[in-house]
Amino acid sequence: MTKVDAQDLRTNETDDRGRIYLGTEYANKRVTVAVVEVESDHPDEDELAAAYREASESAEELAEEWDEASDEAWDGLDE
């Protein structure tokens, strides 16, 4: 069995079915693979919820500012 040095560890991306191409140097050899860490390309639910709350709060603030500016504009027309 060939041992892998820690310096030989590589990060690969999987295809849409979770498969990784190891390369031709591993052809016709038995390979043991360990998954050390998994990163997602998509934000998790907590990140999405926080972003939604932030956007919602920003939209409310913007609507309030617009309402005030609109009222001032209408009041200016009445003069």
TrEMBL record:
Bias (Acidic residues): 57-79
Domain of life: Archaea
Positions of region (Disordered): 53-79
Name of the featured protein: Antitoxin
Organism: Natrialba magadii (strain ATCC 43099 / DSM 3394 / CCM 3739 / CIP 104546 / IAM 13178 / JCM 8861 / NBRC 102185 / NCIMB 2190 / MS3)
